[in-house]
Design a protein that fits this description.
The protein has about 160 residues and is mainly alpha-helical. The chain has one domain (about 5-155): Metal-dependent hydrolases (TIM Barrel), CATH 3.20.20. About 45% of the residues lie in helices and about 5% in strands. The chain has helices at about 15-20, 20-35, 35-40, 55-70, 80-90, 95-100, 105, 125-135, 140-155, and strands at about 45, 90-95, 110-115. The longest helix is centred in the C-terminal third of the chain and has 16 residues, at about 140-155.
């Protein structure tokens, strides 16, 4: 990720783990501001393994920076950077109450929950407790969209049929 070695890696060091999203911030910004997303409107991107709490802030900053320094962005951009994100990007999260709280700026349609088993960020076997905590107060339709609706749409999966009573 280009982080200093003394910070440790995303799976071993506290600072390395905390700052690991820096690489995906830079990648997302480049894919949008260089015009890749604009030139390929059907291409989808998935920001996986970095949670989502950073997204609202970064999208706001990209919008503002593009407004302030439009000449530095690709001439292909015809809408705000956040609109490209909302059209073409998805972001995964496991235990990210901040991302859920900022879901309307990011877009509920772009957030995909997962438990990340068996990786370092995994919340298994406590998935149900974490879901209850981070989605407290979230309308059921938005919770359903983020926990299974978006991923089934993104990958063209058939949603599960509710079990008969």
């Amino acid at each position: 990720m280009g982080l200093p070695a003394h910070w440790g890696g995303p799976g071993t060091g506290i600072v390395g783990y905390t700052m690991a999203h820096g690489g995906i911030v830079a990648t997302t910004g480049q894919l949008i501001c260089s015009g890749v997303a604009a030139r390929h409107p059907k291409l989808k991107f998935v920001c996986a393994e970095f949670e989502t709490g950073w997204l609202g802030h970064v999208l706001q900053r990209l919008n503002h920076a593009t407004y302030r320094a439009r000449c530095e962005a690709s001439p292909d951009l015809t809408i705000e950077p956040s609109a490209y994100f909302q059209r073409q990007f998805y972001a995964t999260f496991e235990d990210d109450a901040i991302g859920v709280l900022t879901r309307h700026f990011i877009s509920v349609d772009n957030l995909v929950w997962g438990n990340d088993y068996p990786h370092h960020d995994s919340i298994w076997p406590h998935s149900q407790e974490v879901i209850a905590r981070i989605f407290a107060g979230v309308p059921e339709d938005e919770k359903a969209q983020m926990t299974f609706g978006n991923v089934t749409q993104l990958y063209g999966l058939t949603p599960p049929v509710a079990a008969a009573a």
